[in-house]
Write a structure and sequence with these properties.
alpha/beta, Transcription Regulator spoIIAA, two-stranded parallel sheet, 5 strands
Amino acid sequence: MLANTVTLPLDGPATIRTIGAVRTALQEALARHHHIQLDVAAADPVDLSFVQLLLAARRSARAAGKQLTLAAPAGGALLCALEQGGFLPPGGADPFWSGAA
């Protein structure tokens, strides 16, 4: 049986070297819950593989009729990776990163 909402803390390194474990945690949460809030405040360091994984997980969640959101607006190492990767254009970023979607 699926539970409604869960907060999934993703802390520590979120890089190409650790992305497999992060992917597994996301897959397990998506299999068990309708709404997953990601707490990424303590993720550090962060690289673009993490950003790509979050975008793919959000797309998979939508396709399954589920919701994946950030528990708080992107900050710290994630915000830095988003800025360096060009994910925060001057005209406005995807509301996912601000915690609004």
